[in-house]
Amino acid sequence: MSDQCQSCAMPFKFGVRGTNADGTLSADYCEHCYVKGNFVYPTATMEGTIEACIPHVVPHTFPDADTARKYMNELFPTLKRWTK
Asked: How would you classify residue 13: left for phi > 0, otherwise alpha for psi between -120 and 50, otherwise beta?
């Protein structure tokens, strides 16, 4: 199991896992990204997801939006949902 959501990178210690179609907990995605076996925002882009996440991590995890964006732009391409 992943220790962070493979769509938005939220650490699971801060949130609940999403659910698979059969109701079991997802090994890879959080409740904000994945419900009943489907992505909550199926047409989301990696760039759009990064922008949506920034307000949730500044100033708690990163001092400013530019620092958060730089980190996420490096991390997100390695996450399962965004791997090409």
From this structure: alpha
Question: CA 46 to CA 74: how far, in whole Å?
Answer: 11
Contact between 82 and 5 (Cβ < 8 Å): no
Return d(Cα 30, Cα 4) in angstroms, integer: 8
d(CA 20, CA 12): 16
What's the CA gap between 6 and 49, in Å, rounded? 12
| Contacts (Cβ under 8 Å, ≥6 apart) of 68 | 53, 54, 57, 58, 61, 62
What are the tokens at 38?
Answer: 């489907």
55-76 pLDDT, tens digit per residue, is 999 999 999 999 999 999 999 9
Q: How far apart are CA 5 and CA 62, in angstroms?
A: 18
Q: pTM for the whole thing?
A: 0.91
Please name which of 1, 24, 23 lies closest in space to residue 12, comparing C-alpha atoms.
Answer: 1
